[in-house]
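sorry to bug you again but im stuck and you know this stuff better than me. theres a chain ive been looking at and ive put its sequence and its fold in token form underneath. id like you to explain what the token line says about the fold, in plain words if possible. anything you notice is useful, everything is just below.
___
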Amino acid sequence: MGRWLDQWSILTNQDEKTLFEWISPLKKEDLIGKKVLDAGCGNGGNSVILAQYASEVLGIDREATSSPLMFKHPKVSYQKGDLDNISHEGEFDVVICVGVLHHMEDPAIGFSNLLKASKTDGIIAVWVYSYEGNALLRYIVEPLKKYIILKLPQRIFSFISHFCTFFGYFLAYNPLYMIKALHFLPYYDYFVYWRKYSYSRNYMNVYDKLNAPKTHWIEESTIRTWASQLKDPKFSSFNGVSWRLIGRKGD
């Protein structure tokens, strides 16, 4: 896994507004008094945000729970674990999984384990990269990653991540991407949000995309299949490049 396991010793991740956009329509009030699982917690940035509202939060991650940059909070505990084989069953009122399932060997197994961890009628909220809207990444960036980028030394990899971030600003502030009538352009919605984020936030997103050894691009048909396993499911496209899904575990 190499540099992937070191990622959360390099990057931080704590952005409340973005987190609640990713898990919308789940609201802060939905967490009050609840026991929450942050599945694939990274170095705990989202876990600490959730703990401001929940009664307790457990963050599970394969490696990042040992990061020196772990976020601390009295209502948050961390556990080293793998979503391929989760040990918790029927424990949580709310299960949140942001940006993780699409990096697993089998995202369907990961989703099944989120259901397993939830109480009956508990809330499950996931955010994943979409197949739709990501042809550039699927056909150009992924092959470059596989054959070149992931093999580079850390210093060069970081330089390329910064270069791609700067290039993202060049595109985001291109006049064409600031004309509402041209909203049909590829990544138009994505660059609207790019302009709202800090440089460090955008850099972290770029670094994460370039650094992941495996990425599955989740098709709408897969999201619909997952939604069919939930009560009252709601799913939507976010920025034209990702999916949000929320619902409740049935009996």
Notes: The chain has a mean pLDDT of 92. The beta strands are 35-39, 56-61, 76-80, 92-98, 118-129, 230-238, 242-249. Helices lie at 16-22, 45-51, 107-117, 135-147, 154-172, 188-194, 199-211, 220-227.
